[in-house]
């Protein structure tokens, strides 16, 4: 007779794992990747491939050097690689994309302790660093036919309204912009998938997108245009819903979303930059610990008072 | 406000099968600690002949319970055995003679008022049969009976696999309602609420049928959401009352009793036979034919497994009770206790411990805790030894239901840490109190 395992309850666990969650996010990002390839050509796929490969390799390498447990199988580095690529112009030099990937994984994620420990979103922070370092290549928007164009938000902010794409073009993603952010349709598909699979909750995206919509309406802007332009959809659905850098509480998510929406609108309408989604998420990332503390619920029956 | 919970796989494979009586085994092992509190003291010695229902362990101290022989036969030895929590306890080993002769002094107790009712409950040896094992007579011995607004009968049976309470409701509804009548007569309680999860259709039907003929008995059908049968959860979901931190149901005018506990008391009042046998669900991935068995208390687990068509594979882990809150047993020689309602024998695959990875801050533990605690924060506070933080996070409210550990995608030992954190906080608070008293 073998010895029985002795352990503390529970003796059963849900089948959910980190890897399954990340796999769902990867799947949810696939439509936007396909759209990017159709809209911007095969180079989009190349940029995505380089970012994913370098992210995974940096994670593996860093953990090897630091003698930490290898975690690339949790697929979180793949998600970071895809998100970073989606936030880059299709014409980005590959070495810059690779450098950005190393920054995302090593500097923003691993130096803070790896998955779940980073206070800022790796893809967004890397993108902001790259925008500062490579401002030229990071703001060149090229279509497959090699025609350079400005993003719709840049056109609006310069008052150049003649060349603006139609609503349908905006919805399908035929406009200047980062390779994964333009196709609203594909991003919504992915977002709905994540909501249905309960990987994300509706609170952050609804609060974020809702705030931008309301503020656009109040400020007399074209609401639909504001929602489909820039990086709002990818930001609200995929980046502001990142677990480790956003509040886990329900009300925390609502506050986080509203904050992101307000900062985005501030930058878009009055700031120097045409777009502010990345900055808004990064700023709210920094506030996350306080928001979490503020919105912690009162435990059931706590304090001994009768209700 | 809605209390959170988790949807577990019910696996109530044995709900429709009537319990089978196991032949009396050759030997039973009856430990003197089958309740919360001080172990009973042995009153028989090696070589003594004992009969069914005979007292073999006397109540020792206030929080304790008497223990009776479940068989007739001869005491073969009195020895220490190791219980599942690791503590050593005196146990009476009895070689059975197969005759199952009743002790001569078994007669229905004379109950005329509240005092004699409490005495009868005490003599019945009944303890909380939902699994807790708290001596029931202490629970019913309420100082001010006018404080009791209602008796909530816990028939939720929210753990996977277990169907022994379901069978009590289907097979012994008379006793459930006789128990209710006794509580009405001797304790003056007027309102009774039977809380049942909605996956027990047959039991609900029977209970409703009986309730329609009784006064002031409601059947509250609750969603099958673990931990529906947690005391505070059940009281809130059936009455809307919130039991305060550190408080008891009585603080909000409620007493709670498990349905089998109530039925067993009624059985004792009618027959005078104390708690000596249990209906036990035997299930789990290693069991060939999941069955409900009626067995004498003290029967070894191995005997039960043998009676269920043997095993599909060597069990890797065997637990008393359900998989969410059950206790793993040290060996198959361990006996069935008073509060054992199930034996789950898990095969290699079911018992395999999950691999723990780093927390990803998904918030699942927060959004599934019935009591809105922060298991992630508690783990952090525990790890850095911050007792003030543990106090602020109210870890003492945790009922150890295990929802947090269940839903964690990183398979972190959250409720396991809560248990240790509760002890750490208690020690800290006691030390602080002692220090203040010194001043």
Provide a compact summary of the structure.
By secondary structure, chain A is mainly α. Chain A is 60% helix and 1% strand.
Break the fold down into its secondary structure elements and pairings:
The complex is a heterodimer of chains A (307) and B (439).
Chain A lengths: L17 H23 L1 H24 L10 H11 L7 H16 L12 H12 L1 H4 L2 E2 L5 E2 L2 H7 L8 H6 L11 H13 L6 H16 L4 H6 L3 H8 L10 H21 L6 H18 L13
Antiparallel strand pairs in A: 1-2
Chain B lengths: L19 E2 L5 E5 L9 E2 L6 E2 L4 E4 L8 E2 L4 E10 L5 E9 L17 H10 L12 H5 L9 E6 L8 H8 L1 H15 L3 E7 L3 H11 L5 E6 L8 H9 L14 E5 H13 L5 E7 L7 E6 L4 H7 L9 E4 L6 E2 L13 E5 L1 H4 L12 H5 L6 H9 L3 H6 L10 H5 L6 H25 L1
Parallel strand pairs in B: 1-14, 9-10, 9-12, 10-11, 13-17
Antiparallel strand pairs in B: 2-8, 3-5, 4-7, 5-6, 7-8, 13-14, 15-16, 15-17
Features:
heterodimer; A: 307 residues; mainly alpha; Ammonium transporter fold; two-stranded antiparallel ribbon; 2 strands; B: 439 residues; alpha/beta; Ubiquitin-like (UB roll); Rossmann fold; 3 domains; four-stranded antiparallel sheet; 14 helices
Description:
- The complex is a heterodimer of chains A (307) and B (439).
- Chain A is mainly α and 307 residues long.
- Chain A has one domain (18-157, 164-294): Orthogonal Bundle (Ammonium transporter fold).
- Chain A has 14 helices and two strands, in the order ααααααββαααααααα.
- Chain A has helices spanning 18-40, 42-65, 76-86, 94-109, 122-133, 135-138, 152-158, 167-172, 184-196, 203-218, 223-228, 232-239, 250-270, 277-294, and strands at 141-142, 148-149.
- The longest helix of chain A has 24 residues, at 42-65.
- Chain A is globular, with a radius of gyration of 20 Å.
- In chain A, 51% of the residues are buried.
- By secondary structure, chain B is of the alpha/beta class.
- Chain B contains 14 helices and 17 strands.
- In chain B, the strands form four sheets. In chain B, strands 1-14-13-17-15-16 form a six-stranded mixed β-sheet, with helices on both faces.
- In chain B, helix 3 runs parallel beside helix 5.
- Chain B is globular.
- Chain B starts with 19 loop residues before the first strand and ends with a helix.
- At the A-B interface, helix 1 of A face strand 15, strand 16, helix 10, helix 13 and helix 14 of B.
